[in-house]
Predict the 3D structure of the following.
Amino acid sequence: MSDVPRDAASGGDDAAVDAAVDWVAAALRQSEPHAPARVVDRAIKRVRFEAFALGVVKELGGAWVGALGAIAEALGSPDEETPPAPAGDGGI
Amino acid sequence: MAARLAEMSDEELVRRAQAGDVAAFEQLAHRYRDLAYRVALRIVRDPLDAEDVAQEALVRSWRALANFRADAKFSTWLYRIVTNLALNRVTRGKKTEDIDDQRESLIGSRVDDPAERAAGMERLEIARRALDALTAEQRACFLLREVEGLSYEEVAEVLETSVEAVKGRLYRARQELAAAMSAYDLEDVS
């Protein structure tokens, strides 16, 4: 938050404008407001919860895929169990 | 571990946080909480609103970390999230200023000398009134450039606009501020 150098792009302001702007900027810089601790505490609580929930969803997702795979294996693949269509000769 | 995280660069912490390391993100949040709150407070003007904005900005930065480009600066990215949220809040028209609370939160408790503290409050109150002359967009532009010290390019990136637009807004902001300050003799209030 150091002093910002002036350049021509600021619009060729005159000295009075520069002085007023510098004064306001300096008054604001000297105040340095600090965030109350609760701001970051609450944010981190929410982030931790979201990270935890995401982990649970991923875990559950993996578990579901595993369980479904096991069930499918136990039942056998419908494709494998379906008897092949009789080659036949076109019927009676 | 916390000590090691404290020594890490923003880039390293971002990399770790992107990989799901919540502790690395917590370090970033602690590092930038004052920046988030300060910018929010100066745009929305209300301490409680500023707390909401800063908190929300930190959470959103976590959620969006996957989209964060490695070549960008985390601070510039956070400036953008905070500024957008703060401008949205101002646009929604919620305005519940409590000047006394604001003074307290702006000055803080680090000035012990009562006379110096009173002078600081007076200067701040004048600066606050001068900022009232600006639109929210001009205020954001002025704060980012003249108070936070960002380059024109960075301000343009934060506000998602062109450098020319930033210079135009800043020019008007400077003229408005000078007009607002013309009522004061700066020698008397320094």
Notes: Chain B touches chain A through 53 residues (CB under 8 Å). Residues 96-105 of chain B have pLDDT under 50 and may be disordered. The CA atoms of residues 144 and 155 of chain B lie 6 Å apart. DSSP finds ten helices and no strands in chain B.
